[in-house]
Records
---
Amino acid sequence: MKNYLMVDFGSTYTKLTAVDLEKEDIIATASHYTTVSTDITEGYHKALLKLYDQLGKKITFDKIIACSSAAGGLKMCAIGLVEELTVEAARRVCLGAGGKVDLVFSNKLTSLEVAQIIEKNIDIVLLAGGTDGGNSEVVLYNAEMLGIYGVDVPIIYAGNKACQDEIRLIFEKYRLKGYFCDNVMPKLNVLNIDSANEVIRKIFLENIIEAKGIKKIESEIDQVILPTPNAVLKAAQLLSEGYLDEAGLGDLMLIDIGGATTDVYSVGWGYPSKTDVVLKGLQEPFAKRTVEGDLGMRYSAEGVLQSMSNREIYQYQKEGIDIEYEAQKRRENVEFIATNDRDIEVDAIFAKKCVSVAVSRHVGHLEMVYTPQGTIYFQTGKNLVDVGHLIGTGGIIIKSPKASEILLSACYDRNNPLELRPASPVMMIDYDYILSAMGLLSLYEPLVALRIMKKRIKVIEEGAMKTNAIA
Amino acid sequence: MKTIVIGVIGADVHAVGNRIIEYTLTREGFNVVNIGVLSSQEDFINAAIETNASMILVSSLYGHGELDCRGMREKCIEAGIGNILLYVGGNIVVGKQDFKEVEKRFKDMGFNRVYPPGTPIEAVIPDIKKDLGML
């Protein structure tokens, strides 16, 4: 028997997933409150006891690996030159690496902006700007600003290659913790993720885990390897692409609604499918993650309320639901768990809004243009209309009896025909909450991880939107 | 190497001439950033900022160039690249108009050089080299 244990140190829960590699299945899962503020090993030990309880015996693990979003996650600051170009490229790199992008700055930094980097306890700064051989004035200025104000966290230079040496001198002059990687936008509208991703991961391993008090756990486990969202993105990509002979599901979208944020992942190029559509703007990542900090079930319940129109709020009122009160209730009592039918219904309303808005921000959009040759469309972002599978994860979706309704809010919407949402995907649920664990496992045993996901992530409703599909 | 941003402005899909311009300027030793057809003023300007371009060369073949180009110099100034060289050429206005007047109109809009219909890109190269101080 060969067993692996995957641990996910979340902001609230520490989740354990035990896998039997020969059986290619999960043998037990358990969770406990994360105890990073005192001693992270405490919560881990308690969860481990629960896991042994379930198994009925104590077992040994051949490998124990972990991902973490504890202690505020990986807080990043993305800096670039033009908002639609290097700023956006830097932002996408941070998100793909599993970061929480707390600050985004364009053009020349001001002293107030640099002060925010320090105040907000940013973990990593990603400094981009200029294509290779392009603008260097602004990145040089910005590096100098980071130096003058003594920003004492790792700074990754991911900008114009032509001034890398000058940047190095600035980093040395101010004794900054400088790192280097390839330009995130080497040519106009070309996105280059991998090199920056690798450096972010390296810094995460070397510095961040230590700084956040998570390193301590490594006396008991093998390693904390990834930020959790990055593990989930890896799982999504594996499930989509497959591995060797084992087929994947093809293009897919994945939605994770949490208490504070709603994450949307998509795997696929999302190119236009029609001849009258012209692709515009910065290249999209094949495996893309977006995270909405204003949309969540508890901490961000009021953000969800703000995204509702007066008409929606009025409609709910007519149905006897005071949505403003409900939002406040959830914000003030983040531990709140819906137990009666009414609260479950209201939770579902919030979840549907989270999904609808988060997906709207994730997917590409069409814009109509009238030309002498007739009407054509611009596509910015990914065309996810033909995505085959839509997967839901996170407590609210896994536990809600209205899961299919919630996921349906991600799909094609007659009122917004220019949003390139999935039209009629097969809807699935990650009932055992295994995605981050499978992302971790995929680093060592991709085939096993893939087979477990295919076994455990189950279909809820097939092609529910067929009737609504775009002709 | 000097960088030139080229593209076709507005709702104009004429792609062939644009490729010829890219080919010719590249052969002449310029770093050409081609943003393609259906490009907005902002697309040109953003590209010029990130690539540190010395010049923007705007093509327009479908007659609406005057509408599409209006305000472009002001936007360049606003974006911090007010001194960039702006060239425009093609069928840039509707119908047959006196080119002297057309040229004046575009120069008043802030374009440095304006070329009449049928100008081959080869004929423009000496101007480019002169304006960029390469001659």
---
Amino acid sequence: MDLHQFIQLTVNGLINGSTYALLGVGFALILGVTGRFHFAYAFTYTLTGYLAAVAASSWGLPVIPAMLIGLLVGIVMGVLIEVGVYRPLAAKAGTNSLLVIFVASLGITIAGQSAITLIWGLNAQARTLEAFKISTWHLGSINFTNLDVLTVVVAWACTLAFSAFLRFSSHGRQIKAVRANPEMAQAVGIDSRAIYRVAFAIGSIFAGVAAILYTLKYAAVPDMGQRPVFYALVVAFIGGTARAPWKVGLTGLGLGLIESWSGNWVSAQWSSTIVFAVLLIYLTWQSLKSAAWARPIRVLAQQS
Amino acid sequence: MSPIDRSVLDDSPPEGPDPGKDGGLTRRHLVQRASIAAAMASPLVLAACGGSDSGSSNGGGGGSSGGGSGATALGKQLNKYVGPGGPENGEGTTWNFGASLPLSGAGAFFGHEMEHGMDLAVDHIKQAGGPDFAVSYEDNKTGDPNAGIQNVRELGINGVAGMMASYLADFGAELPGIAAYKILTIDPGGGTGGSFQEEPYFWGSRALWPEAPFPGVYKYVAEAKPEFKRVSLLIWDNGASFVNPAVKALEEAIKPHGLELVSVEKSAAGSTDFSTTIARLKSANPDVIQVAMSGADVAYFLKGKAAGGLTAQAIGADWNPETQKTAGSTADGFWFSFDYINAKKPPNPWAKIFFDEYKKKFGAEATWLAANYYESTFIYWELIRRVLAEKGDINDGTTLQSALEADPEFPSLYGGNSGEAGTLTFDPKTHTIAKREISLLELEPSGEEKVLATFGLGGSDYKKVA
């Protein structure tokens, strides 16, 4: 194994893992608090990144206001999806709401992506966003950019700030209460529906920040949200939807490292497969821990 | 009440029972069912990637004829280069034509370029006194094999005799249907590649991609950069039938010049993050990276290459203004080589008409993709002309193909001179083109393209320019 390659892959993994942390924290919040399988996370992600790029390039806005507009629209869209789509469907579907909401969110994602393509994507599919000159920094033979450093700093600042918010603020305690038991929370006077809206707003902020960082690094394209939502799902499942955000973030970081280290042995096109393999192994392990038929295996494992 | 097992969710101490959010689900059930949903999501999303099918615009039955009004002024100009019009050449006849293009997904932007090229050709053919092409555009969702198979089935059932393909007939997925329905198919975007030559009813009207330029490119590399010895290949992983011929062609091209293939990196089409690939390439330490990818992937690779401090010379097999916009200054000094046509320097009068009219109609500069699809649509008119002259059936793909095999020469936007259009010649054996001028170009910081060398297929007629 080439040591320089390994170190470079580790640095790459820390950078990518920080992005996965951002995505996972937002997705875990929404799933944990509301129980909604918000696949349309991909759409709010794409909308934020794309709108920020369009606002800067086509509308001529300065970069920071363009980013803020993208972020704001993403937040509003996330909340609107909850209020206008998920909640009415959940009220009607009852015990089947999980599947119904998933299908609805899939439809929103496909329709939203197509709408973005129709409105902005036919004549210029990829939209770039430039906030500053990206320069490469070197530590010996290891390379990364100033944008990579910003990505790591912003990702962890958001994650740690949100962790502190949940732990130390009254609103944070309300969110945790609803996450634990929405009916009990309602009974003690917490407006669960309002907390749901807050969860979607904060989750959309995390998606939006990740989208803007992605757009700065690459470009906004109409289907840019598909891969991130799967990574967010993996991080949320493995990290836990009721865990502290910083713990979920560490799961994202770990996933980034595993994905990057796999490059030592397999070609890069298998990286997504590696990520899903990790999820599969985790879910299989969880099943084995509780399945009755696996009891002999658990006993054997304990004895050995 | 027994505590709920929250081990799937977190490691916090068990709390009381959680009736869940909606209708009494426990959190464990919720996550379990969500994980099932997640497993369902992957194929659903992959299948639905890119959105809906394009609408078909199928005209009525073919073969109706009637008197025509003659060519327009533009049409008469075109007649000088593409042949005559009139009722004996199909004027007044409606002819069903199909296309399987990437109208959604990551390649949608390029699919619409292809569509524009065909639309313009259909309009020009009519103006030049040719038939009415009733085109059915089908969406292959950027090379999705299932979508491609479905497209060919629909076109075959609708009785089209000719069809334009892309992505090497969806990387071969469409070929069985093309042969079964006997649809004369031309792929001006991907060509036949090394793997899909000699396939029944399938022809490529561009140089083999990505391997056709290799002999000329590496002759130039050896002459201009004798210090370059190590070559890496970065290629889309579209299966062994695509990758292996390209690797073999590259090895054959570099070996005579003392260069060595030190690594082959594969990438999934549509990738944006090349950080792992860059790290592996740096480890291989090449002097040259031959890039066998297309579209935005090239731009993202160049961005990653710059960020990763990889200084090897990148040589691409594809380039277009959209890619240039995405790559920005990271594309400075990039070399690329393929059968490329420059809108700013049309090689012949027909090409000039094409570029001028394209800009007028669509408000943007045409790229080589639009040019290729435009040019190839005229091939079908020429075949219809020949079949009509023999009183044959223009709605029979076998008859059209026989006409192509009997005379494989057609007017071309490439080559030629200030007074004449160029010539495109097919090889009846391989079903790919037999002759094409290829350029090796360098992107300068000003955005201009500097010609480094020109050569034909196999590196023939090689000329070092810069």
